[in-house]
Design a protein that fits this description.
Layout lengths: L2 H25 L21 H11 L1 H20 L6 E7 L15 E10 L4 H67 L5 H35 L24 H9 L4 H22 L5 E10 L2 E11 L5 H70 L5 H36 L4
Antiparallel strand pairs: 1-2, 2-3, 3-4
Helix pairs in contact: 1-4, 2-4, 3-4, 4-5, 4-7, 4-9, 6-8, 7-8, 8-9
Length: about 425
């Protein structure tokens, strides 16, 4: 009979010993190490969001193509405002049928002419204005594309950063679960706990490993998408993020952001308005085609080997095809209405998208703040209490594991909320319209 108290004392001592081992093992969850072990070229982007933006604006093939198109459209301004090329002519008259010749001295007379068409009534200025507005629209469309690509790149970078941070959390959790599983196995061998404790730890380990696989795949997809946007090879390495992406939102309120849009801050609106102005100038140009243009010219007449006289010419275009003129005016007016409607549709679309993005951004921000100030501290306190109770045998293994799972789930939820907040901020930044 005296053996039983002795065995009970030994088991209690061992229980306290393994509980003491568990405490520092659980404390290893607190530091979160980076999950990016790949060595990247120091010149490669990825250390922060600014490096991503700078690389995209410099190397993206689509932006380079649209920049070339912008330069081409700007060059067209000079072409549109230029006079038409003059026309030179020569007429041989009095060619002898018996002795034909093409030499001016061997025919009856030769006339040399030079004519210059002259568009009147401000048609050249209107054509130049149309080309200028088209160039403005092309440049604004390029800026709008840059904003869209920057938003996509920032979103991919946020997911890239989130995957690394989440993997670090899960790796730490797996290390702890293996230690907990080992402790549960030892306790079962000593008869201090049922086998179910070790099995429960294994089940939880398998669940976390499944989450890790999904997060790892998501991080690889984000890396490939980011490299695609940066015009790099899909398997090119990126630098590990130095910290959370910095994506500040300029407008303090949704009303201020909408006001900026109404003022035409977004390049898509600027492009739409430039197209409206170009359509209006096109209509005015079509209307002025009702008025005739002229051509002026000079000429010289040669007889034999000498200049026998000079001539001045004035030609007037006769716009007699009235049906064709009216049809062109109707087409220009319809295009003007279409450009105006498209501008209003762009304004409405941007307003709606900004409202949705702002709501999602603020909602994720409030979720993150709630997790940081309430749920995580509560879950951590619950875990610490369960750990202390487990050390003295007041709670079972399931209660400890549930408390640990709740704490880690809260930390992952906080990281997810921070990711959603940054994704919302990237969308808002693109819709606010700051030209890169």
């Amino acid at each position: 009979m005296p053996v039983f108290p002795f065995c009970r004392a030994v088991r209690t001592a061992r229980k306290r010993r393994y509980a003491w081992w568990l405490a520092p093992a659980l404390a290893c969850l607190l530091p979160v190490q980076s999950a990016f072990a790949q060595q990247a070229d120091p010149s490669a982007p990825g250390a922060d969001a600014a490096s991503i933006r700078s690389w995209l604006l410099t190397h993206n093939f689509e932006l380079r193509a649209q920049q070339a198109e912008t330069e081409a459209a700007q060059a067209q301004v000079t072409v549109a405002g230029s006079l038409p090329n003059p026309v030179a002519g020569m007429a041989l008259q009095g060619i002898s049928p018996r002795h034909p010749s093409l030499f001016p001295a061997n025919v009856g007379s030769t006339t040399y002419q030079l004519r210059q068409p002259l568009p009147l009534w401000g048609k050249r200025a209107l054509a130049r204005g149309i080309a200028e507005q088209n160039a403005v629209a092309t440049d604004a469309n390029r800026n709008a594309t840059a904003l869209s690509l920057l938003a996509q790149a920032e979103a991919a970078y946020v997911r890239y950063w989130h995957a690394g941070q989440a993997l670090a959390l899960l790796d730490d959790q797996l290390v702890l679960l293996r230690k907990v599983e080992e402790i549960a196995g030892v306790r079962y061998a000593l008869g201090m706990a049922p086998q179910q404790d070790a099995i429960r730890a294994q089940v939880e380990t398998s669940r976390v490993q499944g989450l890790r696989i999904a997060l790892d795949d998501g991080g690889k997809e984000a890396t490939m998408l980011l490299n695609l946007l940066l015009s790099r090879r899909p398997d090119a390495t990126l630098q590990a993020p130095a910290g959370p992406p910095l994506l500040p939102v300029a407008s303090p309120t949704l009303g201020a952001a909408l006001a900026r849009l109404e003022q035409g801050a977004h390049p898509a609106l600027q492009a739409a308005q430039a197209q409206v102005q170009a359509a209006q100038d096109s209509l005015r140009l079509r209307q002025r085609e009702r008025w005739p243009d002229i051509s002026v010219g000079i000429g010289a007449m040669q007889r034999g080997n000498r200049i026998d006289g000079y001539e001045l010419m004035l030609e007037v275009e006769l716009p007699l095809q009235r049906r064709a003129l009216h049809a062109r005016e109707r087409a220009a007016r319809a295009l003007q209405d279409a450009a105006q409607a498209r501008a209003e549709a762009t304004q409405t679309s941007l307003d709606g998208a900004l409202g949705v993005a702002w709501t999602q951004w603020r909602s994720a921000q409030r979720q993150r703040q709630l997790l940081e100030t309430t749920r995580i501290p509560q879950a951590e306190a619950n875990f610490n209490s369960a750990l202390a109770s487990y050390q003295v045998g007041e709670v079972d293994f399931n209660a400890l594991l549930d408390a640990l799972t709740q704490w880690q789930d809260a930390r992952l939820a906080q990281l997810d909320a921070q990711r959603d907040e940054l994704l919302g901020a990237a969308s808002v930044r693109a819709l606010e319209g700051d030209t890169p």
